[in-house]
Amino acid sequence: MSQSSTTTDGGPGHRPRAAAPYPPYGTAAENDAVYARHVSASHVALLPPQMNIHLGEREGARVQDAYSGTWYWDCWRQGSKFNLGHRHPAVVAAYREAIDHVDAGNWALASGYRASLAEKLAASTHHALTGVTFGVGGADAIEIAVHAARAHTRRTRLVSIAQNSYHGGTDLCLSLSGISAHHRERYLVGGTDVTMVPFNDLDAMRGAVTRETAAVVIEPTPAQAGYPVPAPGYLEGVRRICDEQGTVMIVDETQTGLGSCGGGVVWQYQQHDVVPDVLTTGKGLGGGLYPISAAVMAEPVWASYTQGQLVPHESTYAGTDIGCIIASAVLDLTTDPGFLDRVDQVAQRFTDGFADAPFAFSQIGTNMGLRTATPLATAVRLLEAGVLVIPSGSDLVVPFRPVLTLSDEEADSIIALVRHALG
Fold this sequence. Notes:
423 residues; alpha/beta; 7-stranded mixed sheet; 4-stranded mixed sheet; 14 helices
């Protein structure tokens, strides 16, 4: 293993700091051998050797390979976990301040940190959704949302999107995720309670949703499909169908929210004339530093879910004090009008920069998809050019997500590298 040592930042007044004891193994080969033996050999072999990087230093919009020292622009953003880039100073400061004073807290007690974050989440929806239950990850939030919908409607059936949807790795979430057919088969996940329909197809949605349907679970745009734009009136149509059948509309914004879709709004649904009954969020809510998620509910659904329940979702690390402090800092940043305006400027820079590029792409804010017949080869070419992306593995697309906090110069550098690599 590599040895830690003491270094200085240089200059008067700087305290010596211990060099990070990472990577834990001296070579990439040693790292991968241990990983394959104890975690997953298939994971090690998943990507071609050219893409087998190991994260070392990471800062802002860039990450470094721990062994080669090569730096890459992070345009994967790991499903929007790194919306604010890596180690955003304000989020890191909130984390450091928190651990000087608090710990995870106690889920059975009425935490003020949890209350404060819930208040901010409600405000981000303009108080259309006011009840909040916290989870650890996005799958937790979906489980909570479905439990709430079933408690409210006293029904069991669900409708979700067939192509490239993804909601998490639990049995329930796999049963709702169009991208997860191989997992459903391998883990014997099944049953008759879920009907899948195509995205942007209101006729199919209308045929699937009945008086037995508890909830429609839908991403406002399927991230794994490269963020296709919803057809005009589509989400509004889904809302009407749910209203007609007394069905709860659950919108999963784990990969689309927190300002990433632009338009001056926090959540993508706010770009449309629609309000869901439940909004779920995660990933970026923890600022890339701490796992936390939430289901934010309209009052009637929330009341049905919480009535008579001390804590309807008992989870040791859901909505911890530290997590809520960090997520509060994230919301303070991402709900600021100046921040949202800047996201639009960054998104427009990519729109203009790719306007006459020799490849097709879809875009909603800083969430994009590069259309290609060879997703893996395209991802390798971009990585070799210094741009980190990972293909979705389910469609002829490479999700492309530059971080929201880019400067103009950083955005221009990424655009030039992508155009050169794919030109």
